[in-house]
């Protein structure tokens, strides 16, 4: 039986939103919170031209309990729906909450500005259906676009990490430097071609420069050359596995790390409880399973018993000409 969703809140600033969701910082909210936190970084604000008007932050409540969120942080990033794990919505309740959200959203944004959404698949599909129906009833000519891609959002923890491997010691894995930006930009262009929003050369350089300066990009070097973020000539050498496990061990605070190249001292932002990623292709899923991500239908976190993945979808709409 569907729950009654009594309240929809538009948050006036990111700090109010973060206060509202601070008890729900888990894997199901990772993309929403991660995108928002990134958008609050001073360098990202400057490079991405983010203003207070760039952000839309909405919550749907069941009584006093936050049940559903919708986040938009910048023009270069999709809308993101989130449902806290402690209030994980089943389908009938999701439709009821989304109906309230669709009625509210045109009051705070131009409906023509809504483009695409990335979230758990049943939330995305329900939202797109409700949005097209709701906007059509308002006289807006709009159609749903085919799904851009479907994937699994998966998570790994200290409890799921494999033992430290000799493959880590074969390569030097370290933070990228400003001298690497041009090489990384070309690799990023290749990567972006699988996305519905292919980057331009300028966008790739700008993003890589910003990410390098923020200490967010790591590289693997083989004989002094960047091999990963994996260059074509360096594939099938175990580099992807080495980089994935190395980053997981570093950010989860595992000891011993098992590889060279890490900055000295503790993590600036602290060790993480979970490492999260999206994966769509079967051969890549096999790689990530070797690295400690649990992607099987019955896989559970050995420490908590919770499921460590969900089906994700990226879909959009198109406003038709009058």
Kindly, what is the distance between the CA atoms of the first and last residues, rounded to a whole number of angstroms? Answer: 40 Å
Q: Name the CATH superfamily assignment of the largest domain.
A: Gcn5-related N-acetyltransferase (GNAT)
CATH fold field value of the largest domain: Aminopeptidase
Class derived from helix and strand content: alpha+beta
Query: If you compute it from the alpha carbons, what radius of gyration comes out, rounded to the nearest whole angstrom?
Result: 21 Å
Major beta sheet, specifics? 9 strands, mixed
Helix content: 25-40%
The CATH class of the largest domain: Alpha Beta
Topology as H/E string? EHHHEEEHEHEEEHHEEHEHE
- Number of helices, counting only DSSP H or I runs of 4 residues or more: 9
**What would you say the CATH architecture of the largest domain is?**
3-Layer(aba) Sandwich
> What count of structural domains?
2
Query: Which regions have little confidence, pLDDT < 50, spanning 5+ residues?
Result: none
**How many extended strands?**
12
Organism: Phanerochaete carnosa (strain HHB-10118-sp) (White-rot fungus)
Protein name: N-acetyltransferase domain-containing protein
InterPro entries: Acyl_CoA_acyltransferase
Summarize the structure in words.
By secondary structure, the chain is α+β, with helices and mostly antiparallel strands. The chain folds into 2 domains: 7-151 and 314-319, 3-Layer(aba) Sandwich (Aminopeptidase); 158-309, Aminopeptidase. Helix content is 32%, strand content 21%. The strands form 2 sheets. Strands 1, 2, 3, 4, 5, 6, 7, 11 and 12 form a 9-stranded mixed beta sheet that branches. Strands 8-9-10 form a 3-stranded antiparallel beta sheet, with helices on one face. Strand 9 (218-222) and strand 10 form a beta hairpin. The radius of gyration is 21 Å and the shape is globular. The chain starts with 6 loop residues before the first strand and ends with a strand.
């Amino acid at each position: 039986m569907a729950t009654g969703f009594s309240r929809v809140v538009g948050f006036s600033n990111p700090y109010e939103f973060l206060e509202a969701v601070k008890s729900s910082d888990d894997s199901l909210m990772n993309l929403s919170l991660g995108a928002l936190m990134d958008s609050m970084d001073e360098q990202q604000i400057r490079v991405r031209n983010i203003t207070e008007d760039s952000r839309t932050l909405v919550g749907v409540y069941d009584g006093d309990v936050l049940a559903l969120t919708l986040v938009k942080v910048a023009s270069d990033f999709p809308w993101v729906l989130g449902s806290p794990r402690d209030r994980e919505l089943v389908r009938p309740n999701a439709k009821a909450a989304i109906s309230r959200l669709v009625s509210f959203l045109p009051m705070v944004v131009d409906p023509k500005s809504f483009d695409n959404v990335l979230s758990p698949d049943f939330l995305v599909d329900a939202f797109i259906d409700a949005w097209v129906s709701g906007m059509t009833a308002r006289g807006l000519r709009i159609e749903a676009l085919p799904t851009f891609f479907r994937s699994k959002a998966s998570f790994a923890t200290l409890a799921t990490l494999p033992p430290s491997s000799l493959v880590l010691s074969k390569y030097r894995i370290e933070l990228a430097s400003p001298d690497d930006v041009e090489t990384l930009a070309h690799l990023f262009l290749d990567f972006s071609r699988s996305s519905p929003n292919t980057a331009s050369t300028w966008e790739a350089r700008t993003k890589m420069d910003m990410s390098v300066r923020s200490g967010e990009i790591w590289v693997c070097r083989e004989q002094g050359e960047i091999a990963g973020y994996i260059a074509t000539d360096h594939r099938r050498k175990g580099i992807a596995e080495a980089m994935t496990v190395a980053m997981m061990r570093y950010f989860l605070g595992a000891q011993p790390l098992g590889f060279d190249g890490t900055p000295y001292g503790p993590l600036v932002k602290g060790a993480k409880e979970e490492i999260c990623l999206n994966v769509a292709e079967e051969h890549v899923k096999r790689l990530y399973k070797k690295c400690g991500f649990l992607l099987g239908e019955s896989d559970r976190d050995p420490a908590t018993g919770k499921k460590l993945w969900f089906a994700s979808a990226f879909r959009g709409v198109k406003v038709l000409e009058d």
